[in-house]
Every structure is written in structure tokens, then in C-alpha cells.
Specification:
The chain is an alpha+beta fold. It is 26% helix and 27% strand. α2 packs across α3.
Length: 217
Amino acid sequence: MPTKWNVSPKEAVEIQHRLRDKIRLIPLEKKIKAIAGADVSMDLFGNTLYAGIIVLKFPSLETVEVVTAKTETNFPYIPGLLSFREIPALLKCVEKLSTKPDVFMVDGQGIAHPRRLGIASHLGVELGIPTIGVGKSVLYGKTEGERLIDPKSCEIIGSVIKTKPRTNPLIVSPGHLITLEESVEIVRNTLSGYKLPEPTRRAHSLVNDFRKGIINS
């Protein structure tokens, strides 16, 4: 059943607790030929969202398709509940896609989340597609070397990856229908000299240009 988006923060937390049982961290079922990067930008404290998805060939990283969408949201900005602000905008982008990606790489968390349902996991459950979360900082968990650990269960919920000298590491966590090991391997195979992997780096540039009016929807 699709997620109800027009809910209160309390209802959103209840939905996350319910959906976390649907997460499946299992090996990919097929070889990756197309990978999508997804991101959402917004004006500070604003309710207008600028979403974008870019689809790349894998492993060549050649751009295949680019889509954007502009939406409004009334859901408040609450860490841990950002999927309820951002996923509806990303779904508008998905509706425009003519290419079906084999994996989505999302700017945000997968299971490295207090209720194991970051935006990448939530999007994966919503679409029934493999997803990877690539976060720029820790939302939940404690780092032990290259591992991100759930402090309550002591389970490994992500990897801490240094992608470029003199930059902070990234937090990589599986979202849905993929393993942590596969997630890390894909991120490493999409690096090209920048801190961010190409799918989310290009998606980030896309939505910022869209928000600034440099490109049109």
C-alpha cells in the first residue's frame, strides 16, 4: 500500500515503525546497467521543493536521462522524517522517467536511521526497487573505524567511507533490496575524483541549478 504523505509527525513516526519490517537487505537479483541519482533542494526554511533524478549507464556513468519536478510541502522540517517532505517530490520525477533504473542512489540515509527507515529505505519500499543511501554526516549510530554501529542492537547499519583526502567521510547504508557490501562497492565504482559518487553529485548539481533557475523543468 502506498504511503500516506499528508500526515502529522506523530503519524509519520508510526508509519516508519510499520514500514521498517518491509525492508529486505538481500543481494541484487540482476546485473546493474542503469543507476539513478536522486536529490532534493529547497530554499532555506521554505516549502518549495526542487527534486531531480539523473539516470546514468553503469559502469560507464554516461548520462541517459534527466528529470526534475517542483512541488510544495506542508510537512515540517524534522530530522529523521525528511522522507515525508522529499519523497512526494521524487515520485513526481519517477513518473516522468522513461528509463527504469536498476538501482537508486539517494542523497540521505538508508537503514542508518533511528527507525531504520531513512529516505533511501523509504523510497525503496515505496518503489519496490534497490536503493542506496549516501549521507554526508551521521544521523544515527556510532562509528567504529569504517563501520557505523547501531548503539542499541550493536548491528552494523552502514559504512564510513573516505572518498577524497582532506574531506569528511560519507556514510553509506543500504536502503532496500541490496546488501551493505554491494552498496559500498557501487559507491566506490561511481567515484571520479570528487567527494560524492557521480549519481548523487550530478543529482545535487541538477537540483541546485533547477532551484536557481539555471535550468527549467
